[in-house]
Design goal:
mainly beta; Jelly Rolls; globular
């Protein structure tokens, strides 16, 4: 049996949007989160971003859907042990509106991970960003490293 070369001109490429996936994290300095202030999570480093949909510009830190479809969004933040105990909220925002809110209690002297996830239909040019709010009576820090604070976004259909 012999294999013959395939004529690639007859093979259609996969739809562009199914390449839509990214893993964005921060490897910079830890991020200060002021007590009672809604804070956009600084995600400024690409591990991968197939279609370059994540805006890494300082202060922007958001994903813009290249095409409409079903997207899976998973966000994780890592709170430092430093600072007082209290409440921490992790939000996923769509076009400036909160669509997911995960609440956790931060124990005194213990670091903590916090996760939020949504799978939903988004339109092309929809903007997604991750924010946090902590109410502990004092300031807290988000720890930034590749596997500590990050977002993974992928188009699933």
């Amino acid at each position: 049996m012999y294999l013959t070369p395939m004529d690639l001109s007859e093979v259609s490429p996969p739809p562009k949007a199914f390449g839509s996936k990214c893993y964005i994290h921060s490897i910079g300095a830890n991020q200060l989160c002021v007590n009672g202030a809604l804070t956009r999570v600084r995600l400024d480093t690409r591990r991968y971003d197939i279609l370059q949909e994540f805006n890494l510009a300082p202060g922007a830190y958001h994903f813009v859907c290249a095409d409409a479809g079903l997207y899976d969004i998973y966000a994780r933040v890592y709170w430092s042990a430093a600072g007082p105990a209290g409440r921490a909220d992790l939000y996923i925002y769509l076009n400036g509106v909160n669509i997911v809110n995960e609440v956790k209690v931060i124990a005194l002297g213990h670091p903590m991970t916090q996760d939020a996830r949504v799978t939903d239909y988004f339109n092309d040019f929809d903007t997604i960003d991750i924010r946090v709010l902590q109410v502990c009576g004092g300031n807290k820090w988000l720890m930034h490293a590749q596997n500590l604070t990050y977002v993974i976004i992928r188009r699933v259909a």
